[in-house]
Specification:
By secondary structure, the chain is α+β, with helices and mostly antiparallel strands. It contains 2 helices and 4 strands; from the N terminus they run βαββαβ. The chain is globular and about 30 Å long.
């Protein structure tokens, strides 16, 4: 099955992880579990920095696991 083409929020930094454009409803999960990796404003959140080490990678994966709407994605290798 082909993966849907998802549009990245243009505020995401380049890299493997990203937030889908116009999806975030400011649930608070990203900045609670990985505040150093996400930024947000009144319009939503975005990945401000990609994980740089194993603990940050685990934080990002935790956010992806418990996010409410499935707005945060990871490109597969």
């Amino acid at each position: 099955m082909a993966k849907l083409d998802l549009v990245r929020d243009p505020r995401n930094v380049p890299g493997r992880y990203y937030v889908q454009k116009d999806c975030c409803l400011l649930c608070g999960v990203p900045w609670h579990y990985a505040p150093e990796l996400f930024a947000y404003d009144n319009d939503g959140c975005w990945v401000k920095r990609q994980p740089a080490n194993e603990p940050e990678e685990r934080q990002m994966l935790k956010v992806m696991e418990i996010q409410e709407l499935g707005c945060i994605h990871r490109d597969e290798d």
